[in-house]
Amino acid sequence: MERSGMGKRDSLTGVLKKNIAEAQIVSALNRNRAGALFLCDVDDLKKINDRYGHQVGDECLKETARVLECMIRSNDIFGRYSGDEFLIFMPDCNDIRIASEFCKRIEKRFRVNKENSKLSYSVTAVCAVWQSGDTCQKLFERADGELEKRKIAPGLPAARKKEEKDSYVKDVRLVRSELIEQIRKPGAYCQDYETFKGIYRFLERGIIRSGQKACVILLTVVSGQGESLLPGEKDILMERLGEDIGVTLRIGDVYTKYSSSQYLILVIDTTEGQVDRIVNRIKDRFLANNQEKNILIHNCYELQPARIGELLGPDA
Question: What structural domains does the chain harbor?
Answer without folding.
Answer: 3-179 (3.30.70.270), 189-310 (3.30.70.270)
